[in-house]
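Record Sigma-70 family RNA polymerase sigma factor, 232 aa.
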Amino acid sequence: MPNILTHPKRVASALDQIDDLPDEADVLALLNDHHRRPALPPEVYVRLLRRCRVAPNRRVEHATLKALIAFVVRWVGWQYRGLSHHDREEMAQGLLLVINREVAKQTGIDWWEITFRTNMERAAADLYPTLYDLRPDAEKVAIDDHTDAINDEASVARETVDSVLIDGRIAKILTPDEMAVFYLLFMSEIPIRSDKAPRDLVRMLGKPEGTLREMKTAIKTKLEAALTKEEL
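=>
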């Protein structure tokens, strides 16, 4: 009989605390308090996202995703503080992509709900050489020969990023899948497809070039539409 995975005590306790809250507003308030002490274990975020896959709840899903993003960004900022700001952003988005894929694989408990930090550290160690150990002229080749990574669409994203990211409103605009690729498509200098660059998004994300360009257009349309409204 295979071993049945169960949540560690601290994770189970936090989930029980959430389940005991009287209404959804209290759950959202707890999730939105990113600096609370003691902090919610990150394993809780994975369980909540999977719950939302079984019983959809966009408000809880968005708040959970926002909290998870904040956790990963803080962790990368501390663990990889020797990297440039740009490289830390790439590491954070790469990790979020991995986590998003793992969350989507199943709804049952796995090791991401038991030893989240260990899994994240391993994923970061795997990502590091693919993101940063480039040949000396690799970045120049990617930037000089593939300017589609810095185009009009990227300019739109950069102009709107302050208004939609600072308070987490982007999580109300984009789906979790779109959130996972937003930074890579708009805010990084990694080309969508390149035969000369050591990395491109087609290889990193495992998606066809046409699919990625369609996702980029769809995200751009959503952002522009949302920013025309007085309230998001």
